[in-house]
TrEMBL record:
<dbReference type="GO" id="GO:0044205">
    <property type="term" value="P:'de novo' UMP biosynthetic process"/>
</dbReference>
<protein>
    <recommendedName>
        <fullName>Aspartate carbamoyltransferase</fullName>
        <ecNumber>2.1.3.2</ecNumber>
    </recommendedName>
</protein>
<feature type="binding site">
    <location>
        <position position="176"/>
    </location>
    <ligand>
        <name>L-aspartate</name>
    </ligand>
</feature>
<comment type="pathway">
    <text>Pyrimidine metabolism; UMP biosynthesis via de novo pathway; (S)-dihydroorotate from bicarbonate: step 2/3.</text>
</comment>
<dbReference type="InterPro" id="IPR002082">
    <property type="entry name" value="Asp_carbamoyltransf"/>
</dbReference>
<feature type="binding site">
    <location>
        <position position="272"/>
    </location>
    <ligand>
        <name>carbamoyl phosphate</name>
    </ligand>
</feature>
<feature type="binding site">
    <location>
        <position position="105"/>
    </location>
    <ligand>
        <name>carbamoyl phosphate</name>
    </ligand>
</feature>
<dbReference type="GO" id="GO:0006207">
    <property type="term" value="P:'de novo' pyrimidine nucleobase biosynthetic process"/>
</dbReference>
<keyword id="KW-0665">Pyrimidine biosynthesis</keyword>
<feature type="binding site">
    <location>
        <position position="230"/>
    </location>
    <ligand>
        <name>L-aspartate</name>
    </ligand>
</feature>
<dbReference type="InterPro" id="IPR036901">
    <property type="entry name" value="Asp/Orn_carbamoylTrfase_sf"/>
</dbReference>
<feature type="binding site">
    <location>
        <position position="138"/>
    </location>
    <ligand>
        <name>carbamoyl phosphate</name>
    </ligand>
</feature>
<dbReference type="GO" id="GO:0004070">
    <property type="term" value="F:aspartate carbamoyltransferase activity"/>
</dbReference>
<dbReference type="InterPro" id="IPR006130">
    <property type="entry name" value="Asp/Orn_carbamoylTrfase"/>
</dbReference>
<dbReference type="Pfam" id="PF02729">
    <property type="entry name" value="OTCace_N"/>
</dbReference>
<feature type="binding site">
    <location>
        <position position="271"/>
    </location>
    <ligand>
        <name>carbamoyl phosphate</name>
    </ligand>
</feature>
<dbReference type="InterPro" id="IPR006132">
    <property type="entry name" value="Asp/Orn_carbamoyltranf_P-bd"/>
</dbReference>
Amino acid sequence: MKRHLLSAADLTRDDAMLVLKTAEELRSLADRPIKKLPALRGRTVVNLFFEDSTRTRISFEAAAKRLSADVINFSAKGSSLSKGESLKDTALTLEAMGADAVVVRHGASGAPHRLAHSGWVRSSVVNAGDGTHEHPTQALLDAFTMWRHLGKDGARSGDNLEGRRVAIVGDVLHSRVARSNALLLQTLGAEVTLVAPPTLFPVGIDTWGVETSYDLDAVLPKADVVMMLRVQRERMNASFFPTAREYSRRYGLDGKRMRALQDHTIVMHPGPMVRGMEITADVADSDRSVIVEQVTNGVAVRMAVLYLLLSGANGSDHHGEAPESETDA
């Protein structure tokens, strides 16, 4: 892997598969009484969050701590950032602290790229979501979840997601998850269809290399994966659809629509879910749903990302192999 993880587009198929296979080895930690490895002992990971996030920040914090790294959580609220401190000054402070990796979530698209290429820090930078642009580790954990169910063991694709059909449904316009998934899943050979009302497709969607549809019912029977997206009303300053009820009727996944799915099809959601709008409770809690598993997989994937970035950057002899377990933790 490269020094930073800023975009899903940065990952080759080999890079992505290395992350998935490393995460698979690390995933077994979740079932052990002692969930720690010494792999990043002495390293410092800073979670620099300019936007609120619970799941992503906690996931990165758990990932770093399970690899025995020191973790500093830096929230914009209540800090010097809320008093007007610039990104540059914050970066210089982190550099002075000796951060080895900075995990950044920012409301402005491109902020992690700015931090990584500014020369202000020598640490690895991981994009944990920038505006409506990208969220590459979410795409990796989503791909990992699909791969565990559909790709790695005797599927027709053999060792990847080649030919699998993935439907991503909902607020594509405001979704950095949709963009990162579209990029990464195509790299892994999947066929992606984005489903949304016309008002919730971004300008330039035709350059993404994916199929698009306004008709959810036409797409569902052919899908191997259905990923529902949250409607991000906090990013909307206009009416993008008539009513929540109308949106749910046209683009919500309910029990009736679930019955149209193939027997092996899985249902996903990056969270947080608005139950009853984009997905009903019976679907979210069904046997088809892997939504809770996505959270568990997120920790393993972020462990893999931090391990591959930091061990590789520091001349480790591991060369991408998963670290051995600590026997006396």
